[in-house]
Amino acid sequence: MSVHEHEVKALLAGAGVAVPRGVVVGDDGFDRARELAEPLVLKAFGPGLVHKSDAGAVLLGLRAADLPSAAADMRSRLPDLAGFLVEEQAAAGVELIVGLVGDPGFGPVLLAGLGGVWTEALRDTALRLCPVSESGARRMLASLRGAPLLYGHRGAPPVDVDALVKLLMTVGGPGGLWERLELGEFELNPVIATPSGVTAVDARYLPAESPAPVAHRAPADFLPLFEPRAVAVVGASSSRPNFGNMFLDFYKAAGVPLVAVHPEADEVAGVPAVPSLASADVDYALVAVPAERCPEVVGQAAGVPFVQVMSGGFGEAGRPELEAELVDAARAAGTRLLGPNCMGVYCPRGRQTFVGGGLGPAGSVALISQSGGLAGEVIKVGERRGLAFSRVATVGNAADVTPAELLRWLARDPETQAVGLYLEDPRGGRELYEALSAAELPVVLLVGGRSGQGRRAAVSHTGGMVSDLRIWEAMAEQAGVTLVAGQDDLIGVLAYFQAHGSRAVDGDQVLVVGPSGGAGVLAADAFDRAGVRLDPLPEDALGGLGVAAAGNPLEVPVGPRGRPGLVPEVIGALVRHRPYADVVVHVNVQAFFTYGDAAEPLYAYARALGGAQEALPRTRITLVTRNGECAPAGVEDEVRRIAGAAGIPVYRTMEAAAVAVAAGGRRHGTA
Ligand code: ADP
Ligand code: MG
Fold first, then answer.
1. Which atom of ligand 1 is nearest to the CA of 22?
2. If I label 508, which of 20, 131, 196, 245 is the partner at 20 to 30 A Cα–Cα?
3. ∠ CA 229-432-489 to the nearest 5 degrees?
4. Residue 430, φ and ψ in degrees, nearest 5
5. Residue whose CA lies nearest to ligand 1 atom number 19
6. Residue 456 pLDDT
7. pLDDT tens digits for range 196-211
């Protein structure tokens, strides 16, 4: 069902949006149009007339006297039309599109861009989750490639940008139309902007039933999940070792008090067994039995605060009813459910684990992952790269405990200083956005399976230009969260947060220092791509240090025969001139090893940088070991260890360092 254009325009006028003066007429009564100022526009409306121009249902530049014959002609071509809207023709200007879509996961989304007939071809639009702030609305316009058309282009006067911002706020700001509409899709295309104001000359509204807003419960106390007094494993076999047995082994190695749940056996693999969860006195139960049996098992978990269902075969396998049954069983038992279809929880300080190879060090980095396998990789690879985790939770289908609920708890967890998220499912998007906006600690987000495609079923231009990918991007920007493109950057940004997250820095300047002009040029490109500005150095900042050309990136020789203290001296001198929030030091590892084994000079250099970091507590130093593959095995690990002990994160590429440094500068959202 679509609402007629003149009805939407009445709604807009009531909300204070300028629309052309007009009258609605049937097949006659055109003399009522005489009070309108010519030139006039004639538009037909009726069922199915969504894109009017395509149907030949819009005529511009008419005189009042032309109307009856023009209308009769339209009528003959469009037998189903229900009536006509005659309106004044607005003066030409810059045509924009302003739209809303109700996203099933993220809720109402505002779109603004260059519009009119070119909308789809230009694809120059910006997105924000509603409500948008006034500064957010201004930034939307400024971010358009075609923004110069608004601000005065080639001698043309600027359009009334303030009026445009006001219109965006009326549609998508606090208390705006988005709150009153059933979205669906809503679109003003075009809005004509001129130096003296903005007019919505077309309006389209396709209502749809909006999903009920999610009820926020106060987050559970997740401490017993991460640091359980005791753990139960359901599903380990006394005869044929399976997944459950593997978890029993992991837990035995971790040393947490453990019980197995088994219908007959008194013990499983040396672990005492009880017949059902009802007789297990534990804080956490891991369930690894076939999907069909899970609801029954979970139904016996009364008194166990957290149950994790590892098994797959629920919603993700086309069986949503079984998943609903599982959730009902958990509710009835009064337990909170993780999963189904996940791996479990990892927390060294709580002896919680789902990975082999023993527990890593306890630390301050948390991870919430929809994929258990990916979480396992991030733990193992991350620990090898020096990460130390506070809490890791895998949530799989997130049928009960959601990433947002965990995030709200982690944001107040004294052990957690930074959070990584791996998500695939935009369903809980709005709840997540709210949790991210409220969280004050740094967060990095990796989203898998983002599609750049607009909604296929969309009727409006807006719907066709809103994709999951673009909403995730908008959400990340609004919440001040770094969105990364792959697992390596997820770990890299977490390493940066771990090393530098608690460092209070001065200013926002970034300096890049290292050998080789070419590498410096490429570094500049890498930082530019990551959205990090490298300002030129202050004049005369390097007097007396014997560094030839002063640029940023700054070329300073570093090699096996160089003085390890030179770069620290240069950094010290520059920071005395002007505070630097970040100094990225790069080194060509290959140069240390081409003519023999020169590991020691490289270590000496890393130690010298450690000294520099200690001397400059308000600057974040980051090291890039370019061409590290040229070093013998173990050397990079040792460099990472030396630097890490001094609080310096290490990257193998400039690109990875640039992403991390960009994340460090992006801590506050721009809703
Ligand atoms: P549709 O998008 O359904 O094809 P519109 O109402 O947007 O129909 O009209 C098509 C085009 O005609 C608009 O993009 C705009 O350029 C122009 N137009 C429509 N109404 C007016 C008006 N009142 N004043 C000026 N131009 C108009
Ligand atoms: Mg239109």
1. 23
2. 131
3. 85
4. -65, -45
5. 201
6. 62
7. 999 999 999 999 886 6
- Among all chains, which residue has been given the structure tokens 């000496």? 604
Q: Provide the terminal-to-terminal Cα distance of the chain, rounded to the nearest Å.
A: 32
Query: Which residue has the CA at smallest separation from atom 10 of ligand 1?
Result: 53
Q: What is the pLDDT of residue 441?
A: 94
- Confirm if 5 and 202 have CB atoms less than 8 A apart: yes
Whether the predicted pLDDT of 547 surpasses 70: no
Q: Could you say which ligand is closest to the alpha carbon of residue 50?
A: 1
Tell how far CA 333 is from the center of its chain: 35
Mutation to probe ligand 1, out of 201, 205, 459 (largest number of atoms < 8 A from CB): 201
Q: Indicate which atom in ligand 1 lies nearest the CA of residue 95.
A: 16
pLDDT of 462 above 60: yes
* Residues near ligand 1 (Cβ within 6 A): 20, 41, 43, 51-53, 58, 60, 87, 89-90, 116-117, 189-190, 201-202
Q: Report the phi/psi class of residue 41: left, alpha or beta, with left for phi > 0 and alpha for psi in -120 to 50.
A: beta
Residue 1 clears pLDDT 60, i.e. is over it: no
> Predicted confidence band at 217 (pLDDT cuts at 50, 70, 90)?
low
Distance 190 CA to ligand 2 centre (A): 5
Atom of ligand 1 nearest to the CA of 115: 14
pLDDT confidence of residue 538: 78
Measuring from atom 7 of ligand 1, which residue has the nearest CA?
A: 202
Contact 207, 396 (CB under 8 A): no
Give the Å distance between the CA of 190 and the centre of ligand 1. 7
Cβ–Cβ under 8 Å, residues 132 and 108? no
- In this prediction the pTM is 0.93
Among 166, 193, 190, CA closest to 177: 166
- Among 23, 60, 94, say which to mutate for ligand 1: greatest number of ligand atoms within 8 Å of CB: 60
Nearest ligand 1 atom to the CA of 51 is 3
For 525-564, give one letter per residue: b (16+ CB within 10 A) or e: ebbeebebebeebeeebbeeeebeebbbbbbbebebebeb
Where does residue 199 fall: left (phi above 0), alpha (psi -120 to 50 degrees), or beta otherwise?
beta
Quick check: 126 and 136 in contact, CB under 8 A?
A: no
Q: Kindly state the DSSP code that residue 580 receives in the 8-state scheme.
A: -
Task: Determine the atom of ligand 1 nearest the C-alpha atom of 87.
Answer: 23
- Residue 635's H or E segment, with its range, is helix 635-645
Residue 669 has pLDDT above 70, yes or no: no
pLDDT in tens, 339-360: 999 999 999 999 999 999 999 9
What separation in Å is there between the alpha carbon of 581 and the centre of ligand 1?
51
pLDDT of residue 458: 75
**Structure token pair of residue 300:** 């016996």
